[in-house]
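Re: that backbone. Tokens:
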């Protein structure tokens, strides 16, 4: 019997492929990468031609043993990992390890690739094996070595010179610079006033339309020509007093072509705009669609490979799309010839097909009952985009009407657009970021030259220019792609890393840099400027692509990079902290010490009135301190959102009517808070209340501050215990407290008005769930551990979700969504945590052994009880004998009385 061993990455993919290949094949999963560079010195050795020392991850050892066992008795090894650089690298790692174990001998080895997990694609791939692509493997090695060398050498510099910083990375630091640079543009932006004049008008038939002023006093108006209200009112009066005549009507046909099928980056962008998915979420859902679902009794991959920057579909797929268009929309929606697309992205590699459904005749409705809601939404997006890409263009009639008064001093224009054929828009319209709208999107009524429309109303509107918008995930990915920074497979992990390192946070789905992100960027721009330059990073990506194409040697690329990079690292060894702080104060001064607007010094210490404020660093990161330290111990966080912050963060909100003390909004090292009165000898501990998490301190007014200071508040006596229930705000949010036990409330506002009934109910529900603080809530039960049948669960911990198995608690990474977590991945994380902490992995126990052990324990307990009972009887017997003897010897009345008492006691 023939036995061919096939290696893929994931168990889901293995399960699907195994159904296609039959009994002559054994399909095993590597569970992703099986080896990596250990995070320690010497993993990449520049002194020895960049020799790389690989280490098997603890979670992969079991899979490697299974692969070794299967290969020992096989006829052929087939490496069928993903069709990209990472997939080639996984195959190379598996092959290299098997060679080291000497289990291959003369066994034939083939590398096969397929772009879709379908029976046809798999069987075709098995007939077209090839050798491992060494160029792709070397490109992977170069990329991995570069990331290691940058991260392992640059991150320690940050730790030494910028305490509180987490890490730096070849791509992550450049992406962070994009976010920080955009925020600096916003900080320094000064709005400019301008006015526009618009008129509500009707034609001779009474149909309404709108026009805007384009010429005034015989001059064509630019955006800022009406710079103030005086000029605007003058122009408004001129329009009101003018009798306008239609000078010209120009109608032109226009077309809008459909967008190309999805690449990795455009899929991430559109899923962000339309579905609200972040990049990581999009890739996780796409991975499941690619690996396959059971559709009516057959497991099949639903989309093609989702890590690609190619925009073209295969001729067969184009034919299928054109057939589907004719069948579903009619022949007039089908262009005369297929559409051919070429990517515009910098550094794009079009070796792979665009992302599309594996079967374009399979509509979203066909799979609705077989997939999750998220899978359905993403599949529908992919299907519509792929079909629309081969549809006819949308056709418009764009009309421009020019109007003028008798002497030509006033000119007005009306724009309109009429959709004459919807074309691909009947199915799909691409989303946009930060659109200002289509000014000529309104339909115009019929107007003729010489016609004198009626002016109904004239409006002068004031406007101010706006700063550039903050990046969304979609717009940041698009910008990185335009600059050639990163690759399709890295965007999601790069953005997740920035959030995990707490260099940025999301505000209304837009990136906001944290102060530590600003500090790191300022440091790198000053002392490692070359390595956060967009052109340099893009150029390095081009070199890596050249390695993939076999045009450059990977070690030569590393040598050129390392020579200059390590010199820059060495230069920072003599760098003094004062130089770093001077740079930070210079670069970030406008943010940290904004102008108060009253001419006063924004850096003057508000406490001592003499020292100068500046950025300082401590073990927890950067903060603001006074130059007169230690005499003046004033400090505050770096955030400088207003002039009040620059003055120390203190803002008096009002006077408490009950105590007569000032209510002040302050900024402390751990964030903003409200304080009642000031610290004095009589009032050593003024009452304070923190600002609720997620609330902007700018939104805290006097009334709200009084509400915060009123906490904790008495709710009422518990009807059963008679003890007081109080409501308050804690580090874990709003709560009610009764008899030492807490129960969470749903919202901040509820803490101010919660009544006795709601409070009692919340406490009862908490008790019903098992109540105590040490009992974490089970968020998801994943199943039984394959080694010992013990439960593997996700619990809600004090610091976030974590995976629990036996005595091992493994943190759930922020990059992994709870809904996507599988038992297999959880087992890997548990194994990794056990290896790091030195805990022994729980041994597998058979049911028989467990039963026997339990029985033995029961016997031991029974023996112990019997022994204790025997001792108790013996003691009682001895005591009784002693009492009898004493009674017999006694003859005095006092002795009789004692004896009687003893008898009663016994």
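Recovered sequence:
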């Amino acid at each position: 019997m023939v036995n061919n061993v096939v290696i893929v990455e994931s168990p889901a993919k293995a399960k699907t492929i195994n159904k296609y290949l039959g009994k002559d094949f054994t399909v095993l999963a590597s569970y992703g990468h099986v080896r990596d560079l250990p995070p320690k010195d010497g993993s990449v050795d520049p002194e020895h031609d960049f020799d790389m020392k690989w280490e098997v991850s603890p979670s992969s050892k079991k899979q490697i043993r299974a692969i070794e066992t299967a290969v020992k008795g096989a006829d052929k090894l087939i490496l069928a990992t993903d069709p990209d650089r990472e997939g080639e690298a996984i195959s190379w790692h598996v092959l290299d390890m098997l060679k080291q174990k000497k289990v291959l001998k003369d066994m034939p080895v083939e590398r096969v690739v397929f772009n879709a997990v379908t029976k046809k694609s798999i069987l075709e791939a098995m007939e077209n094996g090839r050798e491992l692509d060494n160029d792709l493997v070397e490109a992977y090695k170069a990329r991995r070595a570069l990331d290691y060398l940058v991260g392992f050498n640059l991150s320690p510099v940050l730790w030494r010179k910028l305490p509180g910083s987490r890490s730096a990375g070849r791509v992550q630091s450049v992406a962070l610079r994009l976010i920080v640079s955009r925020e600096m543009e916003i900080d320094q932006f000064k709005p400019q006033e301008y006015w526009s004049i618009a008129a509500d008008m009707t034609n001779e038939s009474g149909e309404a339309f709108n026009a805007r002023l384009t010429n005034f006093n015989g001059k064509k108006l630019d955006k800022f020509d009406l710079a103030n209200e005086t000029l605007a009112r003058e122009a408004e009066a001129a329009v009101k007093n003018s009798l306008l005549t239609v000078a010209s009507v120009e109608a032109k046909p226009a077309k809008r072509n459909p967008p190309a099928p999805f690449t990795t980056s455009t899929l991430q962008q559109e899923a962000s705009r339309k579905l609200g998915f972040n990049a990581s979420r999009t890739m996780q859902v796409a991975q499941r669609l690619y690996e396959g679902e059971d559709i009516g009794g057959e497991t099949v991959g639903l989309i093609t490979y989702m890590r690609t920057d190619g925009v073209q579909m295969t001729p067969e797929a184009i034919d299928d799309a054109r057939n589907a268009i004719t069948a579903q929309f009619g022949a007039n929606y089908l262009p005369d010839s297929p559409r051919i697309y070429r990517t515009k992205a910098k550094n794009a590699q079009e070796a792979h097909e665009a992302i599309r459904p594996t079967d374009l005749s399979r509509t979203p409705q066909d799979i609705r009952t077989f997939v999750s809601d998220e899978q359905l939404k993403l599949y529908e997006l992919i299907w519509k985009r792929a079909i629309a890409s081969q549809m006819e263009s949308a056709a418009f009639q764009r009309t421009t009407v020019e109007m003028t008064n008798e002497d030509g001093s006033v000119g007005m224009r009306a724009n309109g657009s009429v959709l004459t054929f919807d074309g691909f828009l009947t199915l799909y319209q691409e989303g946009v970021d930060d659109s200002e709208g289509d000014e000529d999107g309104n339909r115009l009524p019929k107007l003729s030259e010489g016609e004198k429309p009626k002016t109904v109303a004239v409006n002068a509107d004031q406007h101010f220019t706006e700063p550039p918008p903050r990046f969304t995930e979609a717009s940041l990915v698009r910008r990185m792609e335009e600059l050639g920074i990163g690759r399709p497979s890295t965007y999601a992990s790069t953005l997740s890393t920035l959030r995990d390192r707490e260099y940025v946070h999301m505000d209304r789905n837009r990136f906001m840099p944290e102060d530590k992100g600003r500090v790191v960027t300022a440091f790198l721009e000053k002392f490692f400027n070359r390595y956060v330059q967009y052109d340099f990073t893009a150029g390095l990506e081009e070199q890596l692509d050249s390695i993939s194409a076999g045009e450059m040697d990977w070690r030569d690329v590393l040598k050129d990079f390392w020579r200059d990079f390590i010199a820059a690292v060495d230069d920072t060894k003599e760098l003094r902290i004062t130089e770093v702080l001077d740079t930070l104060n210079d670069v970030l001064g406008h943010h940290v010490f904004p102008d108060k607007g009253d001419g006063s010094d924004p850096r003057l210490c508000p406490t001592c009135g003499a020292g100068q404020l500046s950025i300082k660093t401590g073990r927890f990161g950067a903060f603001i301190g006074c130059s007169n330290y230690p005499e003046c111990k004033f400090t505050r966080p770096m955030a400088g959102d207003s002039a009040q912050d620059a003055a120390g963060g203190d803002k008096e909100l009002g006077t408490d009517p009950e105590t007569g003390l000032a209510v002040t909004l302050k900024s402390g090292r751990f964030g903003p808070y409200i304080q009642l009165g000031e610290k004095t000898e009589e009032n050593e501990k003024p009452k304070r209340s923190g600002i609720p998490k997620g609330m902007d301190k700018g939104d805290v007014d006097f009334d709200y501050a009084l509400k915060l200071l009123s906490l904790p508040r008495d709710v009422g006596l518990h009807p059963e215990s008679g003890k007081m229930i109080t409501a308050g705000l804690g580090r874990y949010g709003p709560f009610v407290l009764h008899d030492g036990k807490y129960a969470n409330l749903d919202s901040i506002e509820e803490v101010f008005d919660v009544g006795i009934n709601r409070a009692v109910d919340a406490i009862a529900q908490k008790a019903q769930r098992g109540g105590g603080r040490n009992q974490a809530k089970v968020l998801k039960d994943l199943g039984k551990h394959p080694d010992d049948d013990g439960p593997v669960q996700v619990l809600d911990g004090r610091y976030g979700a974590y995976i629990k198995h036996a005595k091992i608690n493994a943190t759930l990474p922020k990059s992994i969504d709870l809904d996507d977590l599988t038992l297999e991945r959880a087992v890997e994380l548990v194994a990794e945590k056990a290896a790091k902490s030195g805990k022994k992995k729980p041994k597998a126990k058979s049911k028989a052994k467990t039963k026997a052990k339990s029985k033995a324990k029961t016997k031991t307990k029974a023996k112990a009880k019997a022994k204790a009972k025997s001792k108790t009887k013996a003691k009682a017997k001895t005591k009784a004998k002693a009492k009898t003897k004493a009674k017999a010897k006694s003859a005095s009345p006092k002795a009789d009385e004692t004896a009687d008492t003893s008898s009663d006691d016994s």
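Confidence is low (pLDDT under 50) at residues 436-440, 640-649, 839-853, 883-906. The first helix runs from residue 11 to 21.
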